């Protein structure tokens, strides 16, 4: 599972800590593709109405697979002195 999280992080697919409504999946997708989060949420609802059920499966899967954004103070390596 760590390799999936690392791969998604490298591609810019992370769930932001700020601006989440439920889990931050749609906000993370919006940030990755450079659109407004509210527009992405609207599109998500429109697609849900057009193709019922598909997002009910996709959202929880992305919630599990997309890593949460790391806090700004967390660095993977200690700073060089």
Overview of the molecule:
The chain has 4 helices and no strands. The N and C termini lie far apart (33 Å). The protein has 81 residues and is an all-alpha fold. The protein has helices at 2-10, 25-33, 37-50, 54-65. The protein has one domain. Helix 2 (25-33) crosses helix 3. The mean pLDDT is 78. It is globular.
Topology of helices and strands:
Blueprint: H1 2-10, H2 25-33, H3 37-50, H4 54-65
Helix pairs in contact: 2-3
Strand content: under 5%
How far apart, in Å, are the first and last alpha carbons?
33 Å
Mean pLDDT: 78
SSE string: HHHH
Total separate domains:
1
Low-pLDDT windows of residues: none
**Structural classification:** mainly alpha
* Fraction of residues in helix: 40-55%
Radius of gyration: 14 Å
Main β-sheet description: none
Q: How many beta-strand segments? A: 0
Give the CA-based shape: globular
Please, how many helices? 4
Task: Write a concise synopsis of the structure shown.
The protein has helices spanning 2-10, 25-33, 37-50, 54-65. The protein is an all-alpha fold and 81 residues long.
Structural descriptors:
globular; about 80 residues; 4 helices; mainly alpha
């Amino acid at each position: 599972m760590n390799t999936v999280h690392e791969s998604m992080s490298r591609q810019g697919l992370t769930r932001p800590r700020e601006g989440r409504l439920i889990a931050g999946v749609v906000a993370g997708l919006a940030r990755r593709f450079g659109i407004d989060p509210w527009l992405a949420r609207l599109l998500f609802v429109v697609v849900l109405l057009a193709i019922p059920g598909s997002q009910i499966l996709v959202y929880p899967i992305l919630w599990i697979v997309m890593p949460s954004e790391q806090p700004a103070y967390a660095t993977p390596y200690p700073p060089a002195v």
